Amino acid sequence: MKREKTSVSQEDYLKAIWEMLEEDHTPISARLAEELHVTPPAVTAALKRMTRDGHVRVGRDGAISLTAKGRGVAERLAVRHQLAEMLLTEVIGLSWAKAHDEAERLEHAISPEVEALLLKRFGDQKTCPHGVPMRGGIAKLRRSGAVLLADMRADEKAEILCVYEKDAQFLEFLDGLRLRPATTVEILHREYDETMTVRAGGKLMHLGKPATSRIWVRRLAN
């Protein structure tokens, strides 16, 4: 059966809602406006269209949920986004820090035929370059037992699984410290303000809460 065509704008809204749900945040109009850098009236109009088209439901409390139809569109777009990131970094050689923003533009132009070829090329990979699991997102990480680095205690060790990918400056910061997925981190000390002293690759570094709350890890046995 032929898929119903959705606009680029609708796809962006649906993926943003899906990502909020995956991260255990309640999607509401104000959060969508902030995430997508649009005005509240624009969000209201978009939600009316998507409700009419059967993609979303809006509760009396303003909470937004996806229908099965809307979730399907969002999940397909999320997969295309990850495939685009892999193409950009592994084939073209684009930097890790720039891949997300470029993939945001490219994901909408990927046809089903190209998507199938990219899945054939990269389908055996379990995550995008930033560690986000394919077909599952952050929710899949959490179900596997992953925790935020911010929740680790002193004298524990962890392996970095995933990092927040929507901030290019943050990714450049991590790149400079060589903190990428698969890196082992040892937590040496936690300050009262939740700043951490950690060791990775033989190097000591200090990380504040804005960084440690954006890094997902798996605890390792000491």
Summarize the helices and strands and which ones pair or pack:
Elements: H1 8-22, H2 29-36, H3 40-52, E1 56-58, E2 64-66, H4 68-92, H5 99-106, H6 112-122, H7 137-143, E3 147-148, E4 157-163, H8 168-177, E5 184-190, E6 196-200, E7 203-207, H9 209-212, E8 215-220
Helix pairs in contact: 1-4, 2-3, 4-5, 4-6
Tally of separate helices: 9
The amount of helix comes to 40-55%
Record field, number of beta strands:
8
> Which second-level CATH architecture of the domain at 147-220 applies?
Roll
* CATH homologous superfamily grouping of the domain at 147-220: Ferrous iron transport protein A (FeoA)
- Rg for CA atoms: 19 Å
CATH hierarchy class name of the domain at 147-220:
Mainly Beta
| Order of adjacent strands in the largest pleated sheet | 3-8-4-5-6-7
Report low-confidence residues grouped into runs of 5 or more: none
Mass-distribution shape: globular
How much of the residues is beta strand, in percent?
A: 15-25%
Give the helix/strand class.
alpha+beta
Q: What about the largest sheet?
A: 6 strands, antiparallel
